[in-house]
Amino acid sequence: MNRPTRYTVDDCKVINLTKYTRPNGNLTVVENNHITPFDVKRVYYLYDVPAGAERGGHAHKQLQQFVIAVSGSFDVVIDDGNKRRKVSLNRPFRGLHIRQGIWRELENFSSGAVCLVLASEHYDEDDYIRQYDQFVEYIKEVEQ
Ligand code: TYD
Fold first, then answer.
1. Which end of the chain is more exposed for a tag (fewer CB within 10 A), N or C?
2. Residue of the nearest CA to atom 19 in ligand 1?
3. Residue having the nearest C-alpha atom to atom 16 of ligand 1
Protein backbone atom coordinates (compact mmCIF):
# COMPACT_ATOMS: atom_id res chain seq x y z
CA MET A 1 0.00 0.00 0.00
CA ASN A 2 1.25 3.51 -0.80
CA ARG A 3 2.21 5.64 2.16
CA PRO A 4 -0.58 8.20 2.83
CA THR A 5 0.25 11.88 2.31
CA ARG A 6 0.97 13.55 5.64
CA TYR A 7 -1.19 16.63 6.20
CA THR A 8 -0.87 19.17 8.99
CA VAL A 9 -3.37 21.46 10.69
CA ASP A 10 -2.02 24.27 8.48
CA ASP A 11 -3.31 22.33 5.45
CA CYS A 12 -6.84 22.51 6.92
CA LYS A 13 -8.17 25.75 5.46
CA VAL A 14 -11.21 27.79 6.29
CA ILE A 15 -13.04 28.44 3.04
CA ASN A 16 -15.36 31.41 2.66
CA LEU A 17 -18.48 30.72 0.61
CA THR A 18 -20.48 33.26 -1.32
CA LYS A 19 -23.47 34.69 0.53
CA TYR A 20 -26.28 35.82 -1.75
CA THR A 21 -28.02 38.48 0.30
CA ARG A 22 -31.59 39.41 -0.55
CA PRO A 23 -34.21 41.36 1.36
CA ASN A 24 -36.08 38.07 1.81
CA GLY A 25 -33.10 36.17 3.22
CA ASN A 26 -29.66 34.83 2.44
CA LEU A 27 -28.51 31.87 0.40
CA THR A 28 -25.20 30.02 0.25
CA VAL A 29 -24.38 27.21 -2.16
CA VAL A 30 -21.80 24.43 -1.90
CA GLU A 31 -21.17 22.78 -5.26
CA ASN A 32 -19.59 19.38 -5.44
CA ASN A 33 -15.95 19.44 -6.62
CA HIS A 34 -16.22 23.11 -7.38
CA ILE A 35 -16.41 24.53 -3.86
CA THR A 36 -15.57 21.33 -2.01
CA PRO A 37 -11.95 20.28 -2.42
CA PHE A 38 -13.07 16.63 -2.96
CA ASP A 39 -15.91 14.58 -4.39
CA VAL A 40 -18.74 14.46 -1.83
CA LYS A 41 -20.07 10.94 -1.22
CA ARG A 42 -21.98 11.50 2.02
CA VAL A 43 -23.69 14.29 3.92
CA TYR A 44 -24.68 14.21 7.57
CA TYR A 45 -25.48 16.75 10.25
CA LEU A 46 -25.22 17.01 14.00
CA TYR A 47 -27.98 18.77 15.90
CA ASP A 48 -29.58 18.87 19.37
CA VAL A 49 -26.10 18.66 20.86
CA PRO A 50 -26.53 19.23 24.61
CA ALA A 51 -24.60 22.09 26.27
CA GLY A 52 -21.13 20.94 27.25
CA ALA A 53 -21.20 17.84 25.03
CA GLU A 54 -18.33 16.99 22.69
CA ARG A 55 -18.43 15.21 19.33
CA GLY A 56 -15.68 13.83 17.17
CA GLY A 57 -12.74 12.63 19.24
CA HIS A 58 -11.26 10.65 16.37
CA ALA A 59 -9.18 10.83 13.21
CA HIS A 60 -9.74 9.37 9.75
CA LYS A 61 -7.08 7.72 7.62
CA GLN A 62 -8.62 8.45 4.19
CA LEU A 63 -11.71 10.55 4.78
CA GLN A 64 -11.76 14.30 4.18
CA GLN A 65 -14.53 16.53 5.48
CA PHE A 66 -15.90 19.99 4.89
CA VAL A 67 -17.62 21.23 8.04
CA ILE A 68 -20.06 24.15 8.22
CA ALA A 69 -21.96 25.67 11.14
CA VAL A 70 -25.17 26.16 9.15
CA SER A 71 -26.80 27.37 12.35
CA GLY A 72 -25.30 28.54 15.64
CA SER A 73 -21.66 27.98 16.48
CA PHE A 74 -19.11 25.46 17.75
CA ASP A 75 -15.35 25.02 17.91
CA VAL A 76 -13.36 22.45 15.97
CA VAL A 77 -10.05 21.46 17.56
CA ILE A 78 -7.78 19.93 14.93
CA ASP A 79 -4.55 18.13 15.76
CA ASP A 80 -1.93 16.63 13.43
CA GLY A 81 0.05 14.92 16.20
CA ASN A 82 2.51 17.81 16.39
CA LYS A 83 0.32 20.89 16.49
CA ARG A 84 -3.19 21.72 17.70
CA ARG A 85 -5.38 24.51 16.37
CA LYS A 86 -8.85 25.64 17.36
CA VAL A 87 -11.17 26.93 14.64
CA SER A 88 -14.41 28.61 15.68
CA LEU A 89 -17.19 28.15 13.16
CA ASN A 90 -20.05 30.58 13.59
CA ARG A 91 -21.17 31.63 10.11
CA PRO A 92 -23.24 29.60 7.61
CA PHE A 93 -21.06 30.89 4.75
CA ARG A 94 -17.76 29.54 6.09
CA GLY A 95 -16.47 25.98 6.15
CA LEU A 96 -13.43 24.12 7.44
CA HIS A 97 -11.70 21.57 5.22
CA ILE A 98 -10.37 18.78 7.45
CA ARG A 99 -7.71 16.76 5.63
CA GLN A 100 -6.90 13.09 5.98
CA GLY A 101 -5.02 11.94 9.09
CA ILE A 102 -6.13 14.80 11.35
CA TRP A 103 -7.54 14.30 14.84
CA ARG A 104 -10.66 16.42 15.50
CA GLU A 105 -12.81 17.33 18.47
CA LEU A 106 -16.01 19.39 18.18
CA GLU A 107 -16.99 21.30 21.29
CA ASN A 108 -18.62 24.41 22.71
CA PHE A 109 -21.85 23.97 20.71
CA SER A 110 -24.27 26.84 21.06
CA SER A 111 -27.92 26.14 21.66
CA GLY A 112 -29.59 25.15 18.37
CA ALA A 113 -26.29 24.67 16.53
CA VAL A 114 -26.36 22.53 13.41
CA CYS A 115 -23.07 21.10 12.13
CA LEU A 116 -23.25 20.11 8.48
CA VAL A 117 -20.57 17.66 7.35
CA LEU A 118 -19.76 16.89 3.72
CA ALA A 119 -17.61 13.78 3.53
CA SER A 120 -15.38 12.36 0.81
CA GLU A 121 -16.14 8.70 1.59
CA HIS A 122 -19.00 6.45 2.58
CA TYR A 123 -19.23 5.48 6.23
CA ASP A 124 -16.48 3.00 7.11
CA GLU A 125 -15.68 2.26 10.74
CA ASP A 126 -12.30 0.82 9.65
CA ASP A 127 -11.25 4.30 8.53
CA TYR A 128 -11.63 5.68 12.09
CA ILE A 129 -8.88 5.98 14.68
CA ARG A 130 -10.82 6.48 17.92
CA GLN A 131 -8.00 6.39 20.50
CA TYR A 132 -5.60 9.33 20.69
CA ASP A 133 -2.60 7.13 21.58
CA GLN A 134 -3.33 5.00 18.50
CA PHE A 135 -3.47 8.20 16.44
CA VAL A 136 -0.01 9.19 17.72
CA GLU A 137 1.30 5.73 16.76
CA TYR A 138 -0.32 6.03 13.31
CA ILE A 139 1.32 9.42 12.74
CA LYS A 140 4.72 8.02 13.75
CA GLU A 141 4.30 5.19 11.20
CA VAL A 142 3.24 7.58 8.44
CA GLU A 143 6.14 9.94 9.18
CA GLN A 144 8.78 7.19 9.16
P1 TYD B 1 -19.46 9.24 15.11
O2 TYD B 1 -18.74 9.32 13.83
O3 TYD B 1 -18.75 8.61 16.28
O4 TYD B 1 -20.00 10.67 15.55
P5 TYD B 1 -19.22 12.02 15.93
O6 TYD B 1 -17.91 12.00 15.23
O7 TYD B 1 -20.11 13.10 15.47
O8 TYD B 1 -19.07 12.11 17.42
O9 TYD B 1 -20.81 8.46 14.84
C10 TYD B 1 -21.82 8.30 15.82
C11 TYD B 1 -22.64 7.08 15.47
O12 TYD B 1 -23.32 7.25 14.22
C13 TYD B 1 -21.82 5.81 15.35
O14 TYD B 1 -22.54 4.79 16.02
C15 TYD B 1 -21.77 5.52 13.90
C16 TYD B 1 -22.99 6.19 13.33
N17 TYD B 1 -22.76 6.74 12.00
C18 TYD B 1 -23.25 6.08 10.89
O19 TYD B 1 -23.85 5.01 10.98
N20 TYD B 1 -23.04 6.63 9.64
C21 TYD B 1 -22.39 7.80 9.48
O22 TYD B 1 -22.23 8.27 8.34
C23 TYD B 1 -21.86 8.47 10.65
C24 TYD B 1 -21.11 9.75 10.54
C25 TYD B 1 -22.08 7.90 11.88
1. N
2. 123
3. 123
For 1, other C-beta atoms within 10 Å of its C-beta total: 3
Query: How far is it, in rounded angstroms, from Cα 70 to Cα 82?
Result: 30
Q: In the chain, what are the domain boundaries?
A: 9-143
What is the value of pTM for the model shown? Answer: 0.96
Class of domain 9-143 (CATH, top level): mainly beta
Rounded to whole angstroms, what are the CA distances from 139 to 83, 87, 106? 12, 22, 21
Share of the chain above pLDDT 90, in %: 92
Q: Provide the sign of the torsion angle of the four alpha carbons 23, 29, 34, 37, taken in this order.
A: positive
pLDDT digits (tens, 9 = 90+) for 114-132: 999 999 999 999 999 999 9
Atom of ligand 1 nearest to the CA of 42: 22
